Amino acid sequence: MRVAEELADALARDVIAAADELGDEGLITEISAVLGASSPTTQEAYMTAIRVRLAERRARKALEARLAKGPSGGARTEIGAGPILDAPEPGGH
After folding, report:
1. 26-38 and 40-69 are packed helices; what angle lies between their axes, rounded to 10 degrees?
2. What does the alpha-carbon distance between residue 63 and residue 71 come to, in Å, rounded to a whole number?
3. Is 83 a member of any domain?
4. What does pTM read for this prediction?
5. φ/ψ (deg, to 5) at 25
6. CA 18 → CA 31, 51, 89, distances in Å?
7. Cβ–Cβ under 8 Å, residues 42 and 7
8. Which structural domain, as residue segments, surrounds residue 36?
9. How many domains are contained in the chain?
10. In a designed cystine with 8, which of 2, 15, 46, 62 is the match (CB 3.0 to 4.6 A)?
11. Which residues contact residue 48 at a Cβ distance below 8 angstroms, ignoring those fewer than 6 apart?
12. Which long-range contacts (CB under 8 A, 24 or more apart) does 50-57 make?
């Protein structure tokens, strides 16, 4: 199964890049349909890779936008440290 996942991930990367270049998000669905006609297992791995990669892209953009705003409210500037992560656990532990 690992081969299918690796191939599907490589294809997902290429299709996302091509969709960006062409300005056509429908390409992702088109390629998914081609995969589904011959290998539902590979199609599932491909769509998982697409979702994960696009979610990571959105999260990175959100992080970059937040970092561009700079520190606010006296929060520390290191990634992973700040008021939310440093808050005491429920129950005072």
Report:
1. 150
2. 13
3. no
4. 0.72
5. -65, -20
6. 11, 16, 45
7. yes
8. 2-69
9. 1
10. 46
11. 8
12. 50/12, 50/15, 50/16, 53/12, 53/13, 53/16, 54/16
